[in-house]
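>> Question from a student workshop board

For tomorrow's exercise we were told to take the sequence and the ligand below, predict the bound structure, and bring the output to class. My setup keeps failing. Could a helper post the expected result so I can at least see what it should look like? The ligand is phosphoric acid mono(formamide)ester.
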Amino acid sequence: MLTMTQLKDRSLLGLKDLGRDEIESILNRAAYWEAQHEKLVQVLASKFVANMFFENSTRTRFSFEMAEKRLGAQVLNFTAAASSVEKGESIYDTVRTLESMGIDAGVIRLKPAGVLEELSSKISVPLINAGDGNNEHPTQALLDLYTMKKRFGSLQGLTVSIIGDIKHSRVARSDLWALRKFGAEVKFCAPNNMTAPELEPFARYVTMEEALRSDVVMMLRVQLERHATGMLKSAEEYRAQYGLTEERASKLSKHTLIMHPAPVNRNVEIDDAVVESEQSAIFPQMSNGVPIRMAVMERAMK
Ligand code: CP
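>> Workshop helper replied:
Here is what the output should look like for this input. Compare the format with yours to find the bug.
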């Protein structure tokens, strides 16, 4: 049985309250894992982990599974649609059920924001946040920082523009909290109805023109599934005002790194050709997600 302190140290609920040293240690360990040639190591042999996704996912779910399997863990995959959640079972009862069966850690993605903290206080295995509502997506931000660090060497003094649907973005929040700890400047650019006023003390809202004059330009997906009706009037209009079009991308400084957490609405927030361009780190971000999640799962269970 883990103590409360061990449980807290092994869990990863968000980056807002995680220390800079702790983040740095995860990034360094990810670099270690990336440098390993062996695809499979038995660091977590005999450990069982449940990936519990109450909301859809491709990248996060599969890169956690890849990371866990590469470390030799036994992996249980839970998806809400194929479970007793469909019969009305609660998130708490579902997690307690898997805990009762003997898992050593749980990876969890939830639709609502703000319930993970309480859930983790009632569960006695480490929980890893794989995205909760618009609150945090810590492993996405860790892989984002890792990608920026690989490209620029240091995060100190970097200018990072996050453009698009800030209001609904857990990625924007986790990146904001983490980047500030490393001395990077985060700027936001968003349509008026997609801003997050509570974040204004931490990041300036700037014009598209200014946003594009940055070391990193991070485009966000327009999260239609979280919108009230009528928030996005037209995809064409959005692309014209806030999209990273081929024309805008051609005017970026050559050193600017283009990022996007994906999934991408191609030709809405970012043009097709820009996704695949040399300046784009979108697919490398996905590759970097595996060593980051190896470091996070090792920290949770070793
Ligand atoms: N970036 C991200 O969280 O992607 P998924 O929703 O596919 O996991």
